[in-house]
Structure formats: C-alpha cells, structure tokens
Amino acid sequence: MVMNFNEKLKKQNSELEQSLRELENIKTENETLKEYLEDYASADTRAKGEVLIQKELKHIPNPKIKEIAARNLKEIIEGKRDFRF
Fold first, then answer.
1. For 23-50, what is each residue's pLDDT tens digit?
2. At a CB cut-off of 8 Å and minimum separation 6, what does 30 contact?
3. Global confidence as pTM
C-alpha cells in the first residue's frame, strides 16, 4: 500500500515536470512570437503570426496549460510583458 502511494507520487511528480516543460515551451515559442507581433510586426506579418499561434495552441494537450497560454496571449495584447511560469 505504501509502495502504491509512493509510485502514485512519482507519477504525479513526473506529470508536473512535463507540464512545466510544456509551459516553458509555450513561453518561448508562442508568447515571444506574440510579443514580437504586437510590438514590431507589419499588419500582414501580424495576421500570419496570429494564424500560426492559434494553430499551435490547438496542439497543447493539457487543457490547463492551454488556458494559461491563451490568457497570457490576451494579456500581451493588453500590453503586459515578461511572463513567468
């Protein structure tokens, strides 16, 4: 019984570590792109970048991480920068 509990904790820890890696990828790939699009891109580049970001968001398997990424992307539009996960 103790072994099952320990194994369950190890599995949860592994899942949390994976989620953290996913969050870091989202930060570096989508949000950095979003910041560039908002701050520097032409209208045409911004439109193309938005399509790419929305496409990539669909590939995030964890619903909670997807929700956080979408919220942060929205906040970038509102002027917030330098997100930490």
1. 666 666 655 888 889 988 999 999 999 9
2. 53, 56, 57, 69, 73
3. 0.60
